[in-house]
Amino acid sequence: MEEKKKILEVKNLCVGFLSHGKKMNVIRNISLDVYKGETFAIVGESGSGKSVFTKTFTGMLDSNGFISDGTIMYHGQDLAKLKTMKDWMGIRGRKIATIFQDPMTSLNPLLTIGYQIEEVLMVHSKPTKEELDAYKALSDKEKAELSANKPSLEELEEKYYKQEIKYLYEGKANFIQKLLAKRSAKRRAKLTKSGKPHGMLRREATVEAIKLLTKVRIPQPAQRVKDYPFQYSGGMRQRVVIAIALACRPEILICDEPTTALDVTVQSQILELIKELQREYKWTTIFITHDLGVVANVADRIAVMYGGQIVEYGTAEDIFYEPAHPYTWALLSSLPQLGTKEEPLVYIKGNPPAFTSEIIGDAFAIRNEYAMKIDYVMDPPMFKISDTHYAKTWLLDKNAPKVKKPAIIENLRERMKAAAKELQREEAVFNE
Amino acid sequence: MATYIIGYTLIALVVIFVIFVELVSHKVIFTKSPKIQMIFGHPLLRYSIRRFGSAIISILLAITATFFLIRFKVDANGGESFCSTIVSTWDKLKNQPAIRLDLCNKMKANLGLTDNWFKDLFTYFYNILPFPKTICLSYFDVDTNAMSFSDCRNTIMYLGRAFFVAGSNGEYVTDLLFSKMGISFQVGIIGSLIEVGLGYPMGILMARHKDGVFDRIGNAYIISIDAIPGVAYYYIWMILLCTLIGLPSSYVSNPADPMHFVSILPAALTMGFTGMAGIALWVRRYMLDEFNSDYVKFARAKGLSERRILGVHVLRNAIVPLVRSIPAAILGALLGTFFLEKIYGIPGIGILAYQVETASKLDVYVLQGIIIISALISVVSYLLGDIVTAIIDPRISFSDD
Q1: What ipTM does the predicted assembly reach?
Q2: Residue of B401, B384, B398 lying closest to B46 (CA atoms)
Q3: B302 touches chain A (CB under 8 A)
Q4: What predicted TM-score, i.e. pTM, was given to this entire model?
Q5: Quick check: A311 and A320 in contact, CB under 8 A?
C-alpha cells in the first residue's frame, strides 16, 4: 500500500448548506486518501452525505452548499479553492467524471446516443488556447518539420477512409456513402498532416463513438449510434453512460450508485463491465453505494459513512472480516443475503441524524445498542487498528469494555459468496 | 379553361398521392424498397392525410351548423326583419304587402336564398368543394328595377358574393377575404416575428440569470401585461409609439407609398411587445424545469460548458411543448385582431368580421366565408403544430402499433 501513489487527499473537509437562513453541517471533518488505480467504495445509508462528499470533487454542490473548511488536494491543486465554472472546466469531465444513479434520466431524451458521445469527444479534444498559441509561435521551418514527421497525405487519407467505411458502414458502403467518407478522410488527412492542433471532426467522433459502444458491448453499434435513448433499455442506457465516461478518459471515475436503478441480473453485468474497463483504462474508481453486496464484489478499500462522517475505513478484508464499528456491524447484519427463512430480517432501528441541530457526541449513539455514556458526550477520535484499518468508536479505547460483534456476521465473505452462488444457481434453473 | 385543366390535374395528383401513400404504408406495393417505404410509408405522412381528411368532415359539420344558424336569423319573423334591411322601399310599400314580398323574394333570389334550406345547403357545399366549376350570377336590382349585372366566372372554390359590407358591390367573397387577409397578415406576421424574436431570447435570458436584474425586470413586464386589460395596453403603446416617437397612427392603403410599410409598424410593434410577454413566461418556466433535470447534471459532469448545456440540451427540451403553438401564431396572423385594427384604422379581416356582425344588413356569405377560413386555419395550424413537435421530439410516433 505504501508504494501506491495518492491521487486524492482529503483533509478535514467540512461542507455546509444554507437552508432557510440556517447553516447545516452535512459533511463533518472528513479526512481520507484515495490511491491511484484502486476501487474505493463509500458505503452508508441514504442521507449519510456520501453523494454530497463526492460532489465536492467536481464542484457540483447545489447552489446553497459550500465547502466551509478543509482541502482536497489533487495533483498539487486544491479543489476546495476552485470557485468559478472556468476553474472547474479543466477538471470536471476531463479528469474526474461521474456516473449517476438513474440511467433512465441521465441521457438527453431528444439527442441521439451518438451525438451525446460525440459531443464529449469533440468538446474535450478541442485544443486549448495555449496549444494554439504555441503552434502560432512556431516558425515556418518548424511547422514544416512537424508535418514532415507525419506519414504522407495519401497514406493518411487511405487509413482514415478505410476506418470510416469499416466503422460507420460496417464495410458495406454505397456510392454516396463512399463519396462522403472520401471527402471527410481528405479533410482529416489534411488537418493531421499540417500538424496544427485541432479538435475531433464530427465523423471522426462518430467513428470513435462506435468504438466506445463496442467497448461497452452494445450490439450493432453502427446502427444503434443513431438511436435515441428511449429506444434503449435501462441496462443499455447505463452502458451508454459508461461509454460517455470512457469518452472523457478520466483519471477518477465517481460512480454514484450506478446500479441502484437496475435489476439484479443487469447490475452484475454493469459492475463487471466497470471493473473490466477499469483494468484497461487504469482509472481510479470511487464507488458510492448503500449496497454492501455490490461493494463485496468490486471494492479494494471501503469507507463507511454515517452522519456526514467516516466512521470506519479499511481494505475490503478489514471491513468484512474485522469490522470494528458498531454501525458497520449493524450494516453487515442487515444484509438481506444473510437472512434465513425462519427469522425476520435484521435492520437498524431509528433514522439517520438530521443536520438541522448540532450533533453532540457520537452521531450513531442513539441507535447503537453498544453505546456507552461517553458516546453521548464526546465525539470519538479515529482509532488506528492496523496500517490500513481505522475506526471511529469509543469501543476501541483501552478503557472500554470488550464486546463481541454479532454472530451473524462471522465468516461473512464465505457466506455471501455462498449466497451469490445460490442466487446464480436459482437463476440458471429459472432460465432453463 | 385553364382553371379546369389546372384544377383537375391538381385533384388527380392529390388523389394519386393519397392512394399511393395508403398502398405503400399498408405494404401492398414497393414492399422491397426501403427508401420508398421510408418516405411514402412514413407514419407522419399517413397521419397527416388522415387527420386532414377528418378535418374536412369537421369543417363541413361546422359549416352546416353555422348555415342553419344564419338561416334562422334570416327567416326569423317570417323573414320580415331581414327583408326590411335589404329592400330599401320596404316601409313605403306598407300597404302593398304582396309587392314588397315579391321584391324581397327577388332580392333573396339574387343572394341564392330560397325557401328550401337543404337545397341551399347542398348548393353551398357544391360551390365550396374544391373542384373546377363555372358559377354564373345575375343580380336584379329591385330599386332601379333593372338588371344590375350578370357575369360568369371559372373558379375552384366559390364562397358567394358580398353585397352589403361597405364598398363591396357584388365582390366575390374569396377576393374580398384574400385582400383583407393580406392586410391583416402584413401586420400579423411582423407582429408574430417580433413576438417570437424577442420573446424567446427574453425567456432564455431570464432563465439563464434567474433572480438577476434582467429576470426581475422581465417578470415585472410580464405581470404588468397580464394585469392591464389588453385594450388599455394597446392604447398605452399607441401613445408611446405614435404620440411620443411619431410613427403614423393611421393606415396608408397605397402599397406603393413608402409610408405604407411604416404605417403598419405601430400595430405590429404593439402586437409583438404584448405577445412576447406570454412567450417569455413559458420559455422561462420550461427552461427552469429542464435545468433541474438529471441529464443536465450529467452534462455538467461530462465537462460541457454552461453555454453549450443551455443552447443544445436545455433549450431543445424546453421548446418541445412550445413549438406546437408557433404555426397557430403564424397562420392566426391571417385572421387579424379586431382591437389592433380598430385602434390603428387598419381595414383587415378583424374589422370585416366586426362589420358583418354589427351591420344592419346581414352579409350571409361573407360571414360564412370568415367561418370557413378560420376553421381551416385552426385545423391546419394544429396539424402543422403536431408535425413540428414530432420533428423535434423523436419520442413521438404516429404509427398504429
Answers
A1: 0.86
A2: B398
A3: yes
A4: 0.81
A5: no
